[in-house]
């Protein structure tokens, strides 16, 4: 008679484990772990979660320049517009001085003086950002150049997302373990081990482009391109409790 074909591998998502009792140990006493602490029946589970978050910051750069025959005229032209930009950013964008960086460059070309200024602005409110930029274009027209917004995440925002997705994966594992225990009439005990086994991160992207500040993207496409996705997979071991209580209840009832 030919031997039976080998069984195909099966992925185990949850496992009830009852460690063997060492020789000389009473059957009603749980064995001792290698560390010296008690352990009994366990449930081994895995849990996973995936979350995403849009960018929490946007950087916009405003360019100003003037070329005049006199140095004072070139400086004054840029200075007036620079003051107007700063005032607009404060009033409409609600931006503090800490979120604004100004760089100035003064040079002489042939018989003329050239004054340039760059204002880098960090926005947290994207609606106010759009309103501010639209207002500057309307009032200053061609005398100002405004870059497309560059969206990004702060380190604090990314760390918060990582923690959140890890906690969600642990909750998933705990819920799975609890349902497995309930299926067999047990109660879930305390966690004995929780280990994050895998973390994956990716940023949303659009075909053929990697810079979300490109003028070819719409506003929503830029937000989508800068959205970050984080997934986490954890392994957890929980103790199973309630076995002794049932045994004692059965003994009392029998007596």
From TrEMBL:
Localization per Swiss-Prot or TrEMBL: Cytoplasm; Nucleus
InterPro entries: IRAK1BP1 (IPR030312), SIMPL/DUF541 (IPR007497)
Domain of life: Eukaryota
Any Pfam family matching the protein: SIMPL
Metal-binding in keyword set: no
Record's GO cellular component terms: cytoplasm; nucleus
Keywords per UniProt: Cytoplasm, Kinase, Nucleus, Receptor, Transferase
Signal peptide: none
UniProt-listed GO biological process terms: immune response; positive regulation of canonical NF-kappaB signal transduction
Primary localization: cytoplasm
Membrane-spanning residues: none
Gene Ontology molecular functions: kinase activity
Region of interest (Disordered), residue spans: 1-42
Similarity field: Belongs to the IRAK1BP1 family.
Protein name stated in the entry: Interleukin-1 receptor-associated kinase 1-binding protein 1
Origin species: Pantherophis guttatus (Corn snake)
Gene name of the encoded protein: IRAK1BP1
């Amino acid at each position: 008679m030919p031997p039976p074909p080998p069984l195909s591998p099966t992925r185990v998502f949850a496992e009830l484990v009852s460690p063997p009792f060492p020789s000389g140990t009473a059957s009603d006493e749980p064995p001792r772990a290698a560390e010296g602490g008690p352990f009994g029946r366990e449930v081994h589970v895995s849990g996973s979660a995936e979350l995403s978050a849009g960018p929490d910051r946007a950087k916009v750069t405003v360019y100003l320049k003037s070329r005049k025959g006199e140095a004072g005229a070139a400086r004054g032209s840029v200075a007036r517009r620079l003051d107007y930009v700063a005032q607009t950013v404060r009033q409409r964008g609600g931006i503090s001085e800490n979120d604004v960086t100004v760089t100035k460059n003064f040079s002489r070309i042939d018989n003329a003086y050239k004054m340039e200024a760059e204002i880098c602005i960090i926005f947290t409110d994207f609606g106010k950002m759009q309103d501010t930029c639209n207002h500057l274009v309307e009032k200053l027209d061609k005398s100002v150049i405004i870059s497309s917004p560059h969206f990004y995440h702060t380190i604090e925002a990314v760390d918060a997302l990582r923690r959140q997705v890890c906690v969600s994966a642990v909750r998933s594992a705990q819920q799975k373990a609890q349902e497995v225990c309930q299926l067999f009439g047990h109660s879930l005990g305390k966690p004995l081990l929780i280990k994050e086994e895998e973390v994956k991160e990716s940023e949303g992207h659009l075909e053929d482009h990697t810079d979300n500040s490109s003028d070819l993207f719409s506003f929503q496409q830029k937000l989508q391109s800068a959205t970050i996705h984080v997934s986490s997979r954890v392994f957890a071991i929980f103790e199973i409790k309630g076995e002794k209580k049932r045994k004692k209840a059965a003994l009392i009832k029998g007596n």
